[in-house]
């Protein structure tokens, strides 16, 4: 008869953990008097707070504006097939993997690489990357705040044209404007122009000649470019001075983040209920409203209608991987950080399944909502081509949606407030995780720094950097930092993380850690994904990314050479943490020769394992016994055991 493995950290109904029972009933000697007890680490007040925080982190702006446009651009409903495949082969395995190592070690995203000190550069590089993302993410929140305040005005300021824009403008409040916005000027007669009340241009003298030289643009788009961004055509002569209205929004956004994380997970955990649930309430209201609008069903059908010709296109699969990668926030350190505050033995398998599934459902729900309203927009302006009214990326939130809202007959302000409030709450939820990741990385290595001091320092520093994004050239800088500071660094370091955890630390040991922690065996699906499938797919994506690389542009405008130099410097600063810390790890590692030091740098530190001393002692005994059993495996035996167990 085989004795089942019992989770030593299981918390019983009496509130007593197995580790406490072991201590109370053990005949073993007490620890030495001079042994320093581990400093008590903060923990979530309740397990549900961890789940809610993960939902608030993973369900963000990418679900609302990036997923619908990405799906539409890559086959519509057919995109769901590669996306779901990628979710099960990349998103879900990495999410569960990072939850396990964070909870098992109770370490943040940098200190968790005590499991392989030579690879600590992965964690540091990820903190560098997520810190850069934080700076521009809050700048987007500043724009959202500007629109939120403007939503209380009547009429909505983007619904009408303004002479100062010096453009051929089509008022968003007007209907049946498709002929002017989407038709060629050759097909529009002068009489049609002169009899129209929807066009406004410089000197109020619009002619077909003017239409040929200047394409008519909706007032919603002109408002975003001229009033909100005050955007420049290029940044060859600099980026300009900050827009004070966006600076106020930036300050308010950072103030909200600071106040929520001022006490760590104790305060952010309480806020997570609102941050996770409230956006769904608003989204449900907006979806119900969208379904009652004429033309909405056509928009939803347009969104989900499959284009099967794209199913085998490598670009579609690449888009699915990047969408899943960034939507779930894997390989950025956030998940490791959040799970490090869990109680040992918490069921992260359940939470990983819930969050990854809910993230996909939210993306679909957002797609139905957005395209339902865009279908109504197409109906109102008099066009059957719904794709013509859709703007990608931020344009979907700040141009297409406001354009549609302006045409609502009754109380458009209410639905505008709801939409931008939802965006703001979603953004704050994600940004709390990103900022907390940096705070945790600092405090894990400098424990004397208080939570509020660290949070305040990061908020002030990031606010100062964020001023660059609210200048007339800010969107150029934002796109540059997103590409070189987030996408490229995260992809390279994410692949390194997978190979280190899968083959240096080992999938087999990782599975034993999970079983020791939760008392449940890890199935072959997880083993194959962690060891083979996920790393290989991510490597293929990197190869595809590099082979199809083209110089970055913004709105088809190339950057000056100094901007590209800054971009590659940012990438190198993040990626070069890898070799730098291999050298540092080897220098710090014990050993009498450099070869011995290098080998030891790739082995876990002596104090690696559960934070509880009793649990770590039991864990070390199991690892020692396992090491003896694996002494004569050989190379093929190691590979087989690592994958199959």
How many domains, as an integer? 1
- The neighbouring-strand order within the major sheet is 2-1-3
Chain-averaged pLDDT:
85
Low-pLDDT sequence parts? 1-37, 187-198, 201-207
What's the helical proportion of residues?
55-70%
Instruction: Give the terminus-to-terminus CA distance.
Output: 21 Å
Rg over CA atoms, rounded to whole Å, is 27 Å
Biggest sheet layout: 3 strands, mixed
Shape: globular
Number of strands: 5
Explain what the structure shows.
The chain crosses the membrane at residues 47-65, 77-97, 127-149, 246-265, 277-304, 316-340, 352-374, 417-442, 454-471, 483-505, 525-546, 566-587. Residues 20-39 have a biased composition (Basic and acidic residues). Na(+) binds at residues 59, 63, 327, 426, 430. The chain has 645 residues and is mainly alpha-helical. It is globular. 65% of the residues lie in helices and 2% in strands. The strands form 2 sheets. The chain has a 3-stranded mixed β-sheet with strand order 2-1-3. Residues 1-37, 187-198 and 201-207 have low confidence and may be disordered. Helix 4 (80-105) crosses helix 21. It has helices at residues 18-25, 47-58, 61-73, 80-105, 120-150, 178-182, 190-194, 208-213, 219-229, 244-261, 265-291, 296-304, 314-327, 334-339, 348-381, 394-405, 412-445, 451-466, 474-504, 507-518, 524-547, 561-575, 577-588, 594-601, 613-629, 634-644; strands at residues 169-170, 199-200, 217-218, 553-554, 557-558. The chain contains 26 helices and 5 strands. The longest helix has 34 residues, at 348-381. The chain has one domain: Up-down Bundle (Amino acid/polyamine transporter I), CATH 1.20.1740.
């Amino acid at each position: 008869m085989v004795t089942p493995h019992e989770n030593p950290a299981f918390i019983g109904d009496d509130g007593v953990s197995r580790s406490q029972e072991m201590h109370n009933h053990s005949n073993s000697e007490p620890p030495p008097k001079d042994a320093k007890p581990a400093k008590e680490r903060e923990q979530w007040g309740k397990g549900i707070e961890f789940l809610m925080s993960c939902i608030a982190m993973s369900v963000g702006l990418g679900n609302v504006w990036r997923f619908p446009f990405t799906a539409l651009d890559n086959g519509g409903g057919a995109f769901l097939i590669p996306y779901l495949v990628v979710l099960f082969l990349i998103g879900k395995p990495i999410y569960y993997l990072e939850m396990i190592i964070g909870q098992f070690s109770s370490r943040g995203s940098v200190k968790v690489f005590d499991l392989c000190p030579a690879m600590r550069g992965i964690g540091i590089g990820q903190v560098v990357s997520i810190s850069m993302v934080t700076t521009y993410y809050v700048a987007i929140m500043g724009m959202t705040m500007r629109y939120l305040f403007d939503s209380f005005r009547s009429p909505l300021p983007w619904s009408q044209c303004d002479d100062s824009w010096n453009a051929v403008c089509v008022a968003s409040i007007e209907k049946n404007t498709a002929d002017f916005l989407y038709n060629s000027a050759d097909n529009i007669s002068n009489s049609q122009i002169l009899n129209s009340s929807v066009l406004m241009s410089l000197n109020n003298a619009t002619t077909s000649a003017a239409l040929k030289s200047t394409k008519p643009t909706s007032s919603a788009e002109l408002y975003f470019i001229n009033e909100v961004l005050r955007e420049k055509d290029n940044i060859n002569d600099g980026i300009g001075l900050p827009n004070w209205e966006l600076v106020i929004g930036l300050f308010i956004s950072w103030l909200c983040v600071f106040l929520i994380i001022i006490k760590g997970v104790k305060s952010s955990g309480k806020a997570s209920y609102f941050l996770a649930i409230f956006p769904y309430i608003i989204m449900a209201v907006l979806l119900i409203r969208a379904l009652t609008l004429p033309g909405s069903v056509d928009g939803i059908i347009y969104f989900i209608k499959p284009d099967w010709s794209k199913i085998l296109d490598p670009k579609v699969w690449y888009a699915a991987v990047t969408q899943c990668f960034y939507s779930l926030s894997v390989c950025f350190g956030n998940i490791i950080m959040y799970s490090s505050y869990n109680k040992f033995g918490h069921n992260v398998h359940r939470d990983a399944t819930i969050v990854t599934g809910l993230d996909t459902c939210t993306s679909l729900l957002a797609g139905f909502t957005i395209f339902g309203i865009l279908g109504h927009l197409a109906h109102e302006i008099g066009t059957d081509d719904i794709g013509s009214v859709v703007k990608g990326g931020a344009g979907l939130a700040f141009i297409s949606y406001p354009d549609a809202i302006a045409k609502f007959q009754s109380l458009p302000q209410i639905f505008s407030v709801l939409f931008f409030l939802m965006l703001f709450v979603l953004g704050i939820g994600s940004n709390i995780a990103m900022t907390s990741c940096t705070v945790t990385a600092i405090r894990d290595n400098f424990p004397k720094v208080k939570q509020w001091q660290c949070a305040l320092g990061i908020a002030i520093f990031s606010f100062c950097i964020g001023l660059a994004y609210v200048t007339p050239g800010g969107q150029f800088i934002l796109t540059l930092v997103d590409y070189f500071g987030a996408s490229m660094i995260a992809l390279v370091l994410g692949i390194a993380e997978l190979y280190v955890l899968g083959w240096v630390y080992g999938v087999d040991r990782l599975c034993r850690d999970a079983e020791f922690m939760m008392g449940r065996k890890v199935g072959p699906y997880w083993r194959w994904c962690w060891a083979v499938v996920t790393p290989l797919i991510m490597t293929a994506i990197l190869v595809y990314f590099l082979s199809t690389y083209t110089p970055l542009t913004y709105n088809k405008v190339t950057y000056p050479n100094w901007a590209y130099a800054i971009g590659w410097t940012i990438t190198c600063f993040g990626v070069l943490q890898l070799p730098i810390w291999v050298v540092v790890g080897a220098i710090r590692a014990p050993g009498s020769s450099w070869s011995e030091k290098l080998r030891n740098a790739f082995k876990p530190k002596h104090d690696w394992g559960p934070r509880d001393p009793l649990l770590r002692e039991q864990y070390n005994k199991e690892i020692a016994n396992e090491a003896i059993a694996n002494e004569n495996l050989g190379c093929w035996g190691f590979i087989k055991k690592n994958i199959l167990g």
